[in-house]
């Protein structure tokens, strides 16, 4: 979120950007801990102002390491299959083993992408 206080927009006057109104809020211990957890590096006042204006920055979830590893392995296997298939002579038919390997890798990829156990959240 940009700090608009330091940038004067050509369409807005300095007086419209200057924040002169102050409010106070009281929180219990649990509410304060929740606020601190959600605000990250932002100050409490700035985070509350952004929240009230529906301008909170998008929170990007951390990477799901398990899913990332599984998808990386599947990607490597598919790349190896692709290299093998591209090295075959032009017009050559796929063997049953090659077709089975491709189907298995596609099924594994589909499972990884749709499984709730390995969701990418």
Structure notes:
The relative contact order is 0.08. The chain has 5 helices and no strands. It is elongated and about 75 Å long. It has 2 domains: 4-52, no CATH class; 65-114. Helix 4 packs antiparallel against helix 5 (96-114). With 121 residues, the chain is mainly alpha-helical.
The structural class is: mainly alpha
The shape is: elongated
Q: How many runs of DSSP E, i.e. beta strands?
A: 0
The largest pleated sheet is described as: none
Distance between the termini: 24 Å
Helix amount: 40-55%
SSE string: HHHHH
Number of domains: 2
List the total number of helices: 5
Strand content: under 5%
Radius of gyration: 27 Å
**Residue-averaged pLDDT:** 81
Low-confidence stretches: none
Protein name: ATP-binding protein
From the structure above, extract its key features:
about 120 residues; ATP-binding protein; 2 domains; 5 helices; mainly alpha; elongated; about 55% helix
Describe the structure in brief.
The protein is mainly alpha-helical. It folds into 2 domains: 4-52, no CATH class; 65-114. Helices cover 55% and strands 0% of the residues.
Write the layout of secondary structure elements.
Elements: H1 14-17, H2 29-39, H3 44-52, H4 65-87, H5 96-114
Helix pairs in contact: 4-5
């Amino acid at each position: 979120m940009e700090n608009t206080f330091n940038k004067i927009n050509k369409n807005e006057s300095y007086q419209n950007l200057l924040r002169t109104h102050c409010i106070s809020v009281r929180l219990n211990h649990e509410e304060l801990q929740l606020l601190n957890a959600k605000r990250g590096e932002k100050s409490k006042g700035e985070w509350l102002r952004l929240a009230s204006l529906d301008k909170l920055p998008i929170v990007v979830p951390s990477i799901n390491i398990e899913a990332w590893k599984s998808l990386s392995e599947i990607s490597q296997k598919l790349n190896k299959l692709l290299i093998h298939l591209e090295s075959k002579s032009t017009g050559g038919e796929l063997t049953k083993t090659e077709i089975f390997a491709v189907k298995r890798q596609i099924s594994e990829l589909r499972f990884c992408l749709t499984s709730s156990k390995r969701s990418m959240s």
